[in-house]
Design a protein that fits this description.
The chain is an alpha+beta fold and about 260 residues long.
Length: about 260
């Protein structure tokens, strides 16, 4: 019996993927860890500013003008760290801040694709509302009430927070220059593979690094099992992703 919240999404490759949604507990744990890091960064920046500009003890000397500047700098610094931290990691680290990475979570778009800058920016701007009335009170209520465990920021940006199973497809590699398979596929017969099927495989190979590992494995396996019987030549037991990479190389060599 499973007590996990799951969601099925249709991918551009025509395969339905089932993802496990993150609950309130795991999301709170990730947020607490991230908040500790952000607080540490803010303290470090404050100490640097204090040492360089005398912000801790120079108020009486600098006058009201200096105090106003110091206050403005601190406000900007807090905003940049609190807002930019999540946007930076979600955009550049495949939807995983350090807290989410440690708790096995990832932010993805509603279609399972990785989040981009605009999506992440919209999602995190609404933290200002989700945080109310104190430490994400609104967010916790909305997540519990949502059928997809989304807070307001997720709903506005079209994102989900999912749990990622820590597994990797056998023989998987993100780099797939077709020339690496040139010799191995010289005897393959791929005449039964259509151009639409090749395009589907290419889409998967191009975006696989942004997929949750469990979703990546399942999607790669389903595509490979669907196409393997239509190809003559590949060895039995070949990994799903290596087979798909080699299939594209074989088809490209015959164009």
């Amino acid at each position: 019996m499973s007590y996990e919240d799951r969601i099925s999404i249709a991918t551009p490759e025509g395969v339905d993927l089932e993802l496990t949604l993150a609950g309130v507990g795991s999301r709170c744990a990730a947020r607490v860890l991230d908040q500790f890091i952000q607080t540490g960064v803010l303290i470090a920046l404050w100490l640097v500013l204090a040492a360089v500009g005398g912000f801790l003890g120079g108020g009486s000397e600098a006058g009201s003008g200096g105090t106003a500047v110091a206050t403005a700098v601190v406000i900007v610094m807090v905003f940049v760290v609190q807002f930019g931290y999540d946007v930076l990691f979600e955009t550049l680290a495949s939807g995983r801040s350090p807290g989410k990475r440690w708790t096995g979570l990832r932010v993805v778009r509603i279609d399972g694709a990785p989040v981009g800058f605009v999506t992440s920016a919209v999602r995190n701007m609404l933290r200002l509302v989700d945080f109310l009335p104190g430490f994400y009170g609104v967010a916790m209520v909305v997540v519990l009430a949502s059928s997809r465990n989304q807070r307001l920021g997720d709903m506005a940006a079209g994102t989900l927070v999912v749990r990622e199973r820590r597994m990797a497809a056998a023989g998987a590699t993100d780099a797939w220059p077709t020339h690496r398979w040139a010799d191995d596929v010289s005897g393959w017969d791929v005449s039964a593979i259509t151009s639409e099927e090749v395009a589907t495989v290419r889409r998967f190979l191009d975006r696989r690094s942004g997929l949750v590992p469990a979703a990546r494995e399942r999607l790669g396996t389903e595509l490979a099992s669907r196409l393997f019987p239509k190809v003559a030549g590949p060895a039995d037991g070949m990994g799903a992703e290596p087979f798909l990479e080699a299939l594209v190389a074989a088809k490209s060599a015959r164009l």
